[in-house]
Amino acid sequence: MSDNSHNRLALNDARFTLANGRTRPEFMLIGAMKCGSTSFARYLSAHPQVKLSGPKEPHYWSWNRYPARYQNFFVNEKPILNPAPGQCVSGEFSTSSLIHPLVPRRVKANLPDLKIFILLRNPVDRAYSHFMMSQRAGLEDECTFEEIVLREIEEIPRLLEAHERGFLDIEGDSKSCYSAIDGKRICVAKHIIGLPQHRIRDDLDLRDFYYQSYMFRSLYCDQVHRWLRLFPRRQLMIIQSEQFFERKVETMNQVAEFLGLEFFKFETAPQLQRSWDAGVRDASRLPQPYAAIDTGLRKTLAQFFDPYNKKLYRLLGEDFGWS
């Protein structure tokens, strides 16, 4: 399934080069956003051999955040691939790493033995959860979810084409990821009634687009395939979010085994027993359940995602049964 003939694309970009003699991660959870990464990080940190420091999502490989401090966040100068009892490993959880086409190339050049986790959720549920998070943050107060996603669907073909071309760009120029084949910057719709489309002009615009991209970010196959073209399948653990939510302890045992860690009774960890509202004294501050997605719209989106999901299933050799 993996195609490592693309190893030549490992990108030695000076902005994303790790220094020798400083710590580096053994593992990364690279996405997808709104698929359970926060719970995953909290549960994994319960294992005594896992040490997490610094921000959960440094976004170093996508947006070059914390360039001077990134290598202070980990524990080992030389990654420990098979930790002995008592040895610790560390990692990070930047969900922008899956969607950005150049991240697998940057990571391959610096961390060729990295162990990689990917959480994937039903794309309809992921898109709607993402929108509701944005709406609650005050970022979506004009257009409805339906208005936004139907416009986004029209943008997807040219975005997919640009991201593939950007991934293959020998120079690793990020502008290729948001430029059409004629070199002009791709336009995307603003989520504001009456405003025209705007061009993605630079990396900051691309970052903002990703942050409020509900449909494009839910197309997993091309994102996962880019990583499989640079890393062998044995270095990736791909987890269906629905199974993770339903069988947390079983999943975390598999995660620990994948990292080569000692057996740990995750069911005894406070992190798995504590509810999401633990410690909040004022119930009015708790997030309230949001309304279910319209049945007709859900059917429309499920039909749209179906061929992309089937492409993912063929890539992985596994059917997640999303509808």
Q: What's the short version?
A:
This protein is of the alpha/beta class.
Percent in helix: 25-40%
Radius of gyration: 20 Å
- By CATH, the superfamily comes out as P-loop containing nucleotide triphosphate hydrolases
CATH topology: Rossmann fold
What is the assembly state of the chains in this entry? Answer: single chain
Provide the CATH architecture. Answer: 3-Layer(aba) Sandwich
Strand residue content: 5-15%
Distance between the termini: 24 Å
Reported for the largest beta sheet, the result is: 4 strands, parallel
The count of helical stretches stands at 12
CATH C-level class is: Alpha Beta
For the secondary structure, the number of strands is 6
**Apparent shape:** globular
Find the structural class using helix and strand composition.
Answer: alpha/beta
Order of helices and strands: EHHEHHEHHEEHHEHHHH
Strand order of the largest sheet: 2-1-3-6
Q: Which whole number gives the mean pLDDT?
A: 92
